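Record format v2
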Amino acid sequence: MNRRTALKAVIAAVFAGSLASLAIGAAHAADPIRIGAVAPKTGPLAAGAAVTHWPNIQLWAHQVNEQGGLKMKDGTRRKVEIIEYDDRTNPGETIKAVQRLATQDKVDFILAPYGTGLNLAAAPIFAKYGYPQITSTSITDKTAELTKRYPSIFFTLGTTTALANSVAGILVKLHNEGKIGNKVAMVNVADAFGIELAESARPIFKDAGLEIVFDKSYPLGTQDLSPIVKGAKAANPDAFVAWSYPPDTFGLTAQAKIEGLDTKAFYTAVATAFPVYLAKFGKSVNGVLGAGGVNPDTPAMKAYYAAHKKVTGKDADYWASPVMYATLQVLGQAIEAVGTDRKAVTDYIKNATFKTVMGPWKFTNQSIHDFWTVGQWQNGTFYGVASTGLSGAKPVITKTGW
Amino acid sequence: MDILITGVLLGATYSLIAMGLTLQYGVARIMNLANGEMLVAGAFGAFWVFTTQKLSPFTSVAFVAPGAFVLNWLIYRFLLRPLVRRAKNRGMLEVDSILATFGMAFAFVGIMLLVFGGEYFTYSYLDEPVAIFGSPFGLNRVVACLVSVALCGLLYLGLNATRTGMALRAVAVDPAAAGLVAIDVPRMSTFAFALGGAVTAVGGIVLSTFLTMDASIGIVFTMKALIIVIMGGVGDVRGAIIASLILGLAETAVASLIDPGLTLAAAYLLFLLVLLFRPEGLFGRRQS
């Protein structure tokens, strides 16, 4: 057989195969509900998405399909089919992929992208094609404006001000109890997230009676954070607060251990709630404060963590993972209630109450207003210690050395 | 004193990142934009050995170095040799190799994503303080510095005291003339490219003890290596070492004395100055 005939044979085989699969597809009673997913698989945010975003989609789709699909109004069951695109952590690519899903793949629904920036970038295109965008990994103070402008966007994870407020609240509480002094060393990553948080934290800390004795930023991707930790230590603070991203969360913690920066309150932001943080630093993380937190003791939450581990082989994080899963539950319950009409689903989400792993959820002004803000590692679990109105918070402990 | 030591430690880190590319660019004339991915692959090797085999990450050198050597040999032999043959002059080869390796970088990221997954890879090894002149420094960084010194020393000796080294340097200076004195230029170039890849992968092993890695982070290292190689001058190991140290010291000094937010600005300012006043690099030869 020469090369050309071999090639023909291959093409024929592929063609026959796809015909066969088409025939099988048509034989099914109900077509699956097609759901698009756009998020980073490569690029700077890929590793975070690999912890928080993709495994939850895998888990939810697996669970829905295992029980035969979503139970529609007319009593039929419809499975879900996920169509995934990698946006390479590039907002332009996110927008293109959403457009492609809407116009070429003609999917029934599109899951919200990953991270604040990519979600905000994609909001206009979601709105243009009338797809509900239930975000789970976006934190911004602009929720009021955004929900007014885009009638189908939903926010669930919180706001920057609430995050900064809670950190200040905890420090003030520890100070009033006489457990720590009022001197705070604050650093932030020079990226939208870090800058926004540092800016909202400065006046909040000052009004709360805290003195900021060290206040510096560092570029994203800094490979040596020791000058920063040395500087913070030289300022002799009682508390250390870092509005940090994953690589620097690990770097700052490692460096603080080495430099012996053992403040009684130690806070790093994103990725403190990741299981790999505990895996890397072991017992020494006891007492470390971080963004997020959960109440892992509810039966729903316990079942969620067990299922996550079983289906995806990975541990869920202790902040946005269950929130992400809850947004998928919201979408599923809305589809079960009103079908695949996107307008009806959006309206239903605005008004109904949902039973989620995070507890009952009811959106007001397209946002969830009760969310965890600060968590703390206590005996190998990252418990929520502050929230905006959730129950089950653990009391804060002070950190005793590394 | 603190600034000096921290700066030297950081400089040593940078030299680990850049040393491999110096060889690849200097001798084989391949501006390898997939260099960072090779480093990340080495780091994954160390991570795997540490987490699944419970061995010291440095034991992974045993399979990472030869593995990277063979892989890079094959890459050069089958993917880059055609470009070298086709190129009419050095400029054309550089442009072609930049485009080709840029594409390869994407392919590598995809492969690593498939094989290792997309999460963060980080672990604690030698993550303890060691006092130098009374100040604490991370033991893993100090070890990295020692490895870097040893590696640079070996390379320098190898290049200056052995016959192969001399041949490599000859190719770096003038491939055409090297061919005239019976040096097998294609073979030497392949060897340099493969050796560079192995050195980069070993660098990745060492860096993984204190840096958090993921499958797509390679580009960050590539950029740093590019700056250092261009600053140091093409094909000169000394130049790359000096440039790494200057960058490390400058960034640390700026971070400690002025503001940590300006470290990148300081690095690029230095880069600009070198480009403006010594476009051939610190140790480079002026082209006639």
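DSSP finds 14 helices and 16 strands in chain A.
Residues 160-294+374-387 of chain A form a domain with the Rossmann fold fold (CATH 3.40.50.2300).
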